[in-house]
Structures are given as C-alpha cells and as structure tokens.
Design brief:
- By secondary structure, this protein is mainly β.
- It has a four-stranded antiparallel beta sheet with strand order 9-10-11-12, with no helix packed on it.
- Strand 10 and strand 11 form a beta hairpin.
- It is globular, with a radius of gyration of 14 Å.
- The protein has one domain: Trefoil (Acidic Fibroblast Growth Factor, subunit A) (Trefoil), CATH 2.80.10.
- It comes from Geodermatophilus siccatus.
C-alpha cells in the first residue's frame, strides 16, 4: 500500500503549514514516480559521503528513511535506517549537486520540506535555494538517471516521491 510522502510529515509535526505536508513517524521507502525505484544508499555503504541514488525497491535498511522533525518548523531531516545518517546535499547547493548520506547535524544542507504536489505525490524541497536570473528558486530532490541530485523545482515526475509503507 502506498502512502503519500506528504502523509509522512503530520504525525511527527502535528498541524502542518499550508505549504507543507504532514509526516508519519517510522521508516519508509521513498519511491520516485518516474522510475518506480526507491531512494537507496549505494551498496549499503556506511561511510560519510556515500552516494544516494535510486534502485529497485527491496525494502533493505539502506532504503528505509525516517523523517525527523526539527524544532519549531515544518522542516525535517531524512535519516536512513542502516546508519542513522541523514540525506545531505554534497558540497555547494547548486543545481545538479549530488545527494549523499552524512552525520545528522541539522545543517541547512540536510533540511527538507515535504510539499504536496497537485497530483497526490510529493516534492522533497531543500531549505537551500538556487539563484536563476537574479531570483531565488526552490531546489527539489531530483532523479537524474540513477543519480539523485537537487534541481530547481519544476513539478516533473522525476521530482515526485511517494512513501511505501
């Protein structure tokens, strides 16, 4: 049974702001709409900086992610079960920056807002933004081939995610 990622955000955070969703506690696979593959720490690696990609959904602990609420906001960290590390933008938050796992420290490159998309799926938006033509634009978790990156949000299927219970 599929639960929308947006449903991941309420039970943890309580009432959500209109721009964010609610989060259910516990670990869940996060499936990409375009590929029907899940967010996966490559090779179940345990080291800081290990690449996160999409891979066939198998329910292994390196594919199970838990939203961890941050104090006083609708932002969450996404923590992987097998290491307890968090989904992190590697290096500068520019379009195409890779996503890795790293020690959870609550830094801005680890903070995400689960935002409902109009079609029942959700976008995973970074706290960090990109600048295009002098304007700031939100950055979303994006599937690029088997890689997972951040890219300016555009509501394409490769930026839509669902939770598998």
């Amino acid at each position: 049974m599929m639960l929308v990622v947006a449903a991941l955000v309420a039970a943890t955070l309580g009432a959500a702001s209109p721009a964010s969703a609610t989060v259910l506690p516990g670990f869940h696979q996060l499936m990409n709409r375009q590929s029907a593959e899940c967010l996966d720490v490559t090779g179940a690696a345990r080291y800081n900086g290990a690449e996160v990609r999409v891979w066939r959904c198998v329910g292994a602990s390196n594919q199970l992610w838990q939203p961890v609420a941050t104090s006083g906001s609708s932002l969450v960290q996404l923590q992987v079960q097998h290491t307890g590390k968090c989904l992190t933008i590697q290096g500068e938050a520019v379009r195409g920056a890779n996503i890795v796992q790293d020690v959870c420290v609550g830094s801005s490159d680890q903070l995400w807002n689960i935002t409902p998309a109009p079609d029942g799926w959700s976008e995973v938006r970074s706290l960090l933004q990109d600048v295009i033509g002098g304007s700031t634009v939100p950055m979303c978790l994006d599937k690029a081939g088997s890689d997972v990156t951040v890219w300016p949000c555009h509501s394409g299927w490769w930026q839509h995610w669902n939770s598998l219970g």
